Amino acid sequence: MARLPFRANLSFPVTEAAPHLRGFWNTDRIIWAQIAALLPPLGLAAVGGGLSLAGVLGVALVTAAAWQGVFARWRRLPFCASGAVTALIVAVMVPGTAPLWQIALAVSFAVVIGEQVFGGYGRNFVNTAALALAFLMFSFPDGGYDKGGIMGWAVVAPGGLALMALGFVNWRIVAAALIGAGAVLLAKGGMPATEQVLAGSFAFAVVFLAGDPVSAPSTNGGRWIYGAAVGAMAALGAANGSFSARAVVFACLIGSIFAPLVDQGAIWINHRLRKWRHGRA
To answer: Structure pTM?
Structure first.
């Protein structure tokens, strides 16, 4: 029997790199959707930060774009605007009085070490913005970065709901994070108030850091475990029921590091359950 020739150029309706979505959406459009969702929190931060925020945002954008351009030219690939998402998140989460050289250093470290060395956006396994914020908080503990920016659920909800409706942020991660945080706050003593789990840096980080479609788990079971773990770790670092930006950022960063292992565990559990249901355990 003659062998059929192998067709190496099969076309599938998915993007070339993660996140893998079908149809109209591709990597660039996903990035612009994330940028649009970040505009309300950025607007609130601009009201509180004024011109100082413009400096932080400008330095973060220029630094991220410069590194993206260097690696795009080196790899002979199209320019990717994913650095803009990192820059906007950093601008929202840091105080406007932050030294600009520290912002440039943190964004450089995150874009190069957290994203580009792995092949660029879609191939990184940690959230780039979370890595930049963790770098600032760890390297400059007296810089005031643990306070977070000025934000709340009201400005996070429009963009967050839109991203969940489009499938870029999985609702299971958000729900599990709220459940995990509420359970830990309850265990620490007292009924957690609604504003404790819906306000401040926690709400913003759950959507834009923990809910990142690239670094979050891709299995439904893994999303529940991951979200609950991130929420629980963030609540463990809360003082008097108030979430600190430091605890939230490091919870999201640790969660993204272990996300592949969580996915693998969820797949293994599902495989064992299927074997058990079919009497092949």
So the answer is: 0.83
- Residue listed under structure tokens 């991220």: 64
Q: Alpha carbon 173 to chain centroid distance?
A: 11
Beta bridge partners of 14: 22
Structure tokens at 275: 């074997």
In angstroms, the CA 241 to CA 248 distance is 13
For residues 12 and 158, what is the distance between their CA atoms, to the nearest angstrom? Answer: 32
Q: What is the dihedral of CA 77, 101, 53, 125, to 10 degrees?
A: 40
Tokens of 57: 């945002």
Side chain identity, residue 111:
V
Residue 137, classed as helix, strand or coil, is helix
Where in the chain are the domains?
A: 27-274
Distance CA 216, CA 227 (A): 9
| Closest by Cα among 138, 155, 27 to 84 | 27
State the CB neighbour count (10 A cutoff) for residue 71. 19
Structural contact between residues 156 and 204, judged by C-beta atoms closer than 8 angstroms: yes
> What are the phi and psi torsion angles at 168 (to 5°)?
-80, -30
Banded pLDDT at 228 (limits 50, 70, 90):
very high
| Statement: residue 14 has pLDDT above 50 | no
Summarised one tens digit per residue, pLDDT across range 56-93 is: 999 999 999 999 999 888 888 888 888 899 999 999 98
